[in-house]
Amino acid sequence: MSETLFVAFSTQKGGAGKTTLTVLMASYLHFVKGHNVAVIDCDFPQFSIKDMRERDLRNIERNPYLKKIAFEQFKKLKKRAYPILASRPEEAIDTAKRLLSAETPPDIIFFDLPGTINNVGVIQTIATMDYIFCPIAADRVVMESSLKFASILNDTLISTGKSNIKGLYLLWNMVDGREKTNLYSIYEAIAGELGLEIMKTFLPDSKRFRKEGSEDEEKSSFRSTVLPPDRILAKGSNIDKLAEEMLTLLKR
Fold first, then answer.
1. Higher pLDDT pick, 16 / 113
2. Which residues belong to any copy of the CobQ/CobB/MinD/ParA nucleotide binding domain (predicted)?
């Protein structure tokens, strides 16, 4: 069996989509691709993903439509929802050891890390990751912040061999339309000069990425910690392509 990989969508710019991407990829790889995953929510003190799990369970309990979907899924897959553990960033690796000591450790543990790298404990946790995916958007403020963040990791941790990081990849998120403008080419050139690699897959700017289940509507959810992304909503989202590219990079 392959050893458990530590993976994080990480950036120091809020609103870049790292928490949403963590949930989408964790759910897609767990429920659709058959990998066993776990999530450690380090977004202290709000713990966004842990709160999302509680909302998901509450909505399924109160919504007959979602309850039926969840029952049919469990009947088909015979697979429970992946575990989500809350942890302070500096204690995340100790929290992960609890998962690694299980009879069947996860194939992949996703870490939802805070953006700041001014904390020694956070830096030590980041340095323990196997792979880091940094969401970027064609916005000057977001790009400057993300490129600075990725460059610091690359120059101080990866290039120096002072970390466990095997790969750092930038990911275009919230792309406006299917055609990339010259702005994207300019930013990609800058990233290349900094020695940073950008993934081939990009994710479109779409409201579906914020669509969760509800207590009363008979509508499927796209972002959920207990259900895979709805197939109809997933069309054109590129999350299937992102998952395949990620698995290739992770050698899984």
1. 113
2. 8-216
Higher pLDDT: 210 or 234? It is: 234
Residue 68 has pLDDT above 60, yes or no: yes
pLDDT score of 13:
73
Q: Percentage of the chain surpassing pLDDT 90? A: 73
> Is the CA virtual torsion 233, 238, 244, 248 positive or negative?
negative
**Residue type, position 65, single letter:** Y
Instruction: Give a yes or no: residue 76 inside a domain.
Output: yes
Decide: 61 and 226 in contact? Cβ < 8 Å.
no
pTM: 0.93
How many structural domains does the chain have?
A: 1
- Whether 252 maps to a domain, the answer reads no
What sign does the CA torsion over 209, 211, 213, 217 have? negative
Question: What's the confidence (pLDDT) of residue 208?
Answer: 87
* CATH code of the domain in which 172 resides: 3.40.50.300
Which residues are 204's β-sheet partners? 175
* Structural domain of 163: 5-247
Mean pLDDT, the chain, rounded, equals 91
